[in-house]
Amino acid sequence: MPHTQVIEQLKASLQTAYRQAIDADNRLDELKKAGHVKFDAIFSASEGFTTKSNRFTPYVQELATDMEAMIQNPESLAPALESYVPKLGLLLQTMQAFKSNAK
């Protein structure tokens, strides 16, 4: 698969993550108002993110910044994907688990 197709697929996944993050953050706001949100960050530094937030949208923003860097520097795409893909996967999995458990 040419790198342009890889980038387009990752962009689509990032858009999905963004939409899910908005919904998840709204749910987190509801839980916080009810006194149930008592954590500082969704992900730890060991999971690859530099962002530290108790909302999902900042993590999506970090991935969007990483995506832009990959587009600007396509010759370093392979090493960038090695860290990007696991973070995107973790974010999507975590939001799915949150959605399932927050019903």
Description:
It comes from Shewanella pneumatophori. The chain has helices at residues 3-33, 57-72, 77-101. The chain is an all-alpha fold and 103 residues long. Helix 1 (3-33) packs antiparallel against helix 2, helix 1 (3-33) runs parallel beside helix 3 and helix 2 (57-72) packs antiparallel against helix 3 (77-101). The model has no long low-confidence stretch (mean pLDDT 91).
Structural class category: mainly alpha
Number of distinct helices: 3
Order of helices and strands: HHH
Q: Give a quick account of the main beta sheet: strands, pairing sense, barrel closure.
A: none
Tell the overall outline.
Answer: elongated
Mean pLDDT over all positions: 91
Beta strands, count:
0
Low-confidence stretches: none
**What's the gyration radius in Å?**
15 Å
Quaternary structure: single chain
Protein name: Prephenate dehydrogenase
Coiled coil: 7-34
Organism: Shewanella pneumatophori
Keywords: Coiled coil
Brief rundown of the structure:
It comes from Shewanella pneumatophori. This protein is mostly helical.
